[in-house]
Amino acid sequence: MKYIPFHKPSIPASAIEGLKQVIDSGWITTGKKVQRLESSIAKIIGAKYTVAVSSGTAALHLAYLAAGIGRGDEVIVPSYTFCSTINAILHTGARPVFCDIQEDTLCLDPKDVEKRITRKTKAIVVVHFAGLPANLDEINNLARQHNLVIVEDAAHAFLTKYKGKYVGSGKNLTCFSFYATKNLTTAEGGLVVCPNLETANYVRMMSLHGISKNAWKRYQKTGSWKYDVLFPGLKYNLSDIHAAIGLAQVPLAGKAHVTRVRLAKLYKQLLSHNPNLILPAEPVHPTSEHAWHLFVVRVQPSSRIGRDGLIEKLKSAGIGTSVHFIPNHQQTLYKKLALNRQLPVTEKIFRQILSLPFYENLSEKEVRRVCLTLNQLTYGK
Ligand SMILES: Cc1ncc(COP(=O)(O)O)c(C=O)c1O
């Protein structure tokens, strides 16, 4: 039986032409393609200041630095996220303070966030889990009341809409990931949306060693050999090779989103009668939109088989799955740093979650096979 992987990227053949152009141009690192990717994404989501970087993790690290997060600060962040959201906080010298999530949205719980605000709190990190928008209004209000910065981890949220507007079109520093499994991918890559030009200039400079602006041009005809180091920067710039892969997907992004919405609907339709699964929530507000980066179900204790056993059985049936995420407060590093707290909702959800195969070129037939197998294993029907 043909294996259905958890993920397969959808890169159009036009990417080859873009890659050829880069190689033929004689300039393969940061250049025109990166600029075009930045402006194309800005245009789609309605943002003004975008800086493409080498990963979503790099985007988060730079956004934290741009937000002025550093030693002595506390940053409130869900434990229920990928470890890089947290690691990048540690790299600034600040202390992550884990908060719990809401059981329905799996995004951070504003009430729990409020409880964890202290005099040392500098920022709140919002993760739009799986592509569902988090409750930004409540978090923005809290930030305003307590004079805190918000950084949005939008690694899952390219084309997520919150109340009619794309995530990344507001005033918060917002970080996208273009990692291999994401809705738009450059293989490795990311992007920071900045609230103003000054912040964008800082992020750009810090992404390239902290040297004076346009340093990437120094080997080109229009560039200059002279540069000045202003800050201890990082090496987080994106290359034109990566940008060319992303640019090929840009004109198809709308269509790809429609396909994801259709596949999510089909999954829901085929699994809705199964009492042993909880299906992913839809956005509360009618003008909000799910980006459907992941399709995550929750295996209930009433299921004939537990989540871990189910993963093995699905694997034997030729179906790849994944788990997003292992709570960070249960990871060795964060336990050692005494950051382990009791997060009852996060812990409960972790025991249940299962990410099913989900990508644009997943066929309806494959979705039917996944659902049939899943229903048989958990429900017997
Ligand atoms: C929620 C979240 N934040 C951040 C990242 C980091 O992105 P990247 O892998 O591009 O560094 C990921 C990863 O894939 C993620 O899922």
Automatic annotation (TrEMBL):
One of its GO terms (molecular function) is transaminase activity. This is UDP-4-amino-4, 6-dideoxy-N-acetyl-beta-L-altrosamine transaminase. Keywords: Pyridoxal phosphate. InterPro entries: DegT/StrS_aminotransferase, PyrdxlP-dep_Trfase, PyrdxlP-dep_Trfase_major, PyrdxlP-dep_Trfase_small. The modification N6-(pyridoxal phosphate)lysine is found at K182. PANTHER family: DTDP-4-AMINO-4,6-DIDEOXYGALACTOSE TRANSAMINASE (PTHR30244:SF34), TRANSAMINASE (PTHR30244). GO terms for biological process: polysaccharide biosynthetic process. Belongs to the DegT/DnrJ/EryC1 family. The active site is at K182. SUPFAM superfamilies: PLP-dependent transferases.
